[in-house]
Amino acid sequence: MNKMVEKIPIVGLQNSGKTSLIRTFQREFKALAKLKPTKGIERTKITFLDQEIVIWDFGGQEKYRGKYMHKAEVYFSDLEQLFFVIDIQDQNQLSEVINYFQLIRTALLEYSPHVMLNLIIHKYDPGMESDSNMAKLVDTVSTKFKSLADPLTSKIYQTSIFNPISVIHALSKAVLGNNILSGNLEVILGKFVEENNFIEQIEMMLIYSPDLVELGSYFREGIDPQELKMAAKDIFEAFEPKKLKIQSGEFSIDSANMELLTHRIKGGDDDYFLLVGFKHDNVYNVLDLKDKVRYLIDHIEKIMLYI
Question: Which end of the chain is more exposed for a tag (fewer CB within 10 A), N or C?
Answer without folding.
Answer: N
